[in-house]
């Protein structure tokens, strides 16, 4: 199977995956993201306990790339610490921006590494990064609150 087909199949599979496309009851943090250039809209909800992402879900509408990318993110970050979540969000964003390109550094992104070539498609970059950027904002806010409580 050629890489382009694998990429397409994976995006379609994650776009259909509704495991984490839902609301969370009493989330610790909620963040809304919007891409005005294409109309993608996303709401990220996170439940944090003891500095760990216990649940991560999203709702919203958008193209297959934005929905698949957000589904990959939700799957990857369940059970991670807030700090690790922020680091992985930044790694993904750096990958899409073409700043980190070696596969060894990107392996920990798991399925999301398949979106690497979106960096070569500027009109799709915002689609792929919407959920990740929105979550990074939410987690950064939580990290600040956690450090103020110490």
Report what the structure shows:
This protein is an alpha+beta fold and 150 residues long. It has a single domain, classed as Sufe protein. Chain: A (Alpha-Beta Complex), CATH 3.90.1010.10. 50% of the residues lie in helices and 18% in strands. The chain contains five helices and three strands. It has helices at residues 3-16, 64-77, 82-96, 103-106, 122-149; strands at 29-35, 40-49, 52-61. The protein has a three-stranded antiparallel sheet, covered by helices on one side. The radius of gyration is 15 Å and the shape is globular. It starts with a helix and ends with a helix. The model has no long low-confidence stretch (mean pLDDT 93).
Task: Please work out how many helical segments DSSP would assign.
Answer: 5
Strand order of the largest sheet: 1-2-3
Round the mean pLDDT to the nearest integer and report it.
Answer: 93
- Tell me the radius of gyration: 15 Å
Please state the overall shape, judged from the principal axes of the Cα atoms: globular
End-to-end CA span: 51 Å
CATH topology: Sufe protein. Chain: A
Low-confidence stretches: none
Helix content: 40-55%
Organism: Dialister hominis
Pfam families: NifU_N
Family: Belongs to the NifU family.
GO molecular function, one term: iron ion binding
């Amino acid at each position: 199977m050629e890489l382009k087909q694998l990429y397409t199949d994976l995006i379609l599979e994650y776009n259909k995956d509704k495991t984490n496309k839902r609301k969370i009851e009493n989330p610790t943090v909620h963040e809304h993201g919007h891409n005005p250039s294409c109309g993608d809209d996303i709401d990220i909800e996170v439940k944090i306990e003891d500095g760990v992402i216990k649940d991560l879900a999203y709702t919203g509408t958008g193209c297959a790339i934005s929905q698949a990318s957000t589904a990959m993110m939700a799957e990857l970050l369940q059970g991670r610490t807030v700090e690790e979540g922020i680091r992985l969000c930044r790694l993904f964003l750096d990958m899409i921006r073409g700043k980190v390109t070696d596969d060894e550094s990107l392996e920990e992104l798991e399925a999301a590494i398949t979106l690497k070539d979106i960096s070569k498609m500027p009109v799709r970059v915002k689609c792929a990064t919407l959920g990740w950027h929105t979550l990074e904002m939410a987690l950064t806010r939580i990290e600040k609150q956690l450090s103020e409580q110490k």
